[in-house]
Amino acid sequence: MSSKEIQVKEYTVRAHKRQIHTRVFNFVCKQCDQSTSRETYGPRPLYCETCRPPGTPKKSQVTAPAKKGKPRAKVYRSDVDFQKSS
Fold first, then answer.
1. Phi and psi (nearest 5°) for 38?
2. 42-65 in b/e burial notation, b at 16+ Cβ within 10 A?
3. How far is the C-alpha of 86 from the C-alpha of 84, rounded, in Å?
4. What is the pLDDT along the chain (86 residues), one digit of tens a residue?
5. DSSP 8-state symbol, 49
6. Region for 33 from its dihedrals, namely left if φ exceeds 0, alpha if ψ lies in -120 to 50, beta otherwise
7. Torsion of CA 38, 40, 46, 47, to 10 degrees
8. What's the CA angle centered on 21, arms 27 and 54, to 5 degrees?
9. Half-sphere exposure of 43 (CA within 13 A, CB side)
10. Among 44, 46, 52, 58, which is disulfide-ready with 30 (CB 3.0 to 4.6 Å)?
11. SS (H, E, C) the chain
12. Where is the composition biased (Basic and acidic residues) (predicted)?
């Protein structure tokens, strides 16, 4: 079993290095019916790299909650004048 070091950059965790264990699978492509091999770290692939090329990792759709502003003192205005001058 071969291993690779990959650079992982995420927004939810600090960037770090992770060691993944990859395997080379020999299989018959489901689309073009050609015998091929493909290196992957997940389950056995169904398609060769020409039929389904590896894509970029999808970014997670988690959005940060909107930041609330600091509470401010409210100024109320009234028609009645409470300050009586003598």
1. -150, 135
2. eeebeebeeeeeeeeeeeeeeeee
3. 6
4. 677 887 776 567 678 888 888 899 999 999 999 999 998 888 888 998 889 888 776 666 656 567 788 888 888 887 777 776 65
5. T
6. left
7. -50
8. 55
9. 2
10. 46
11. CEEEEEEECCCCCCCEEEEEEEEEEEEECCCCCCEEEEEECCCCCCCCCCCCCCCCCCCCCCCCCCCCCCCCCCCCCCCCCCCCCC
12. 76-86
- Sign of the Cα pseudo-torsion (62, 63, 64, 65, in order): negative
Q: Is 19 helix (H, G, I), strand (E, B) or coil?
A: strand
Cα–Cα dist 22/40, whole Å: 5
Structural tokens at position 82: 């409470």
20 Cβ neighbours under 8 A, 6+ residues apart: 3, 4, 6, 41
**8 A C-beta contact, residue 43 and residue 51:** no
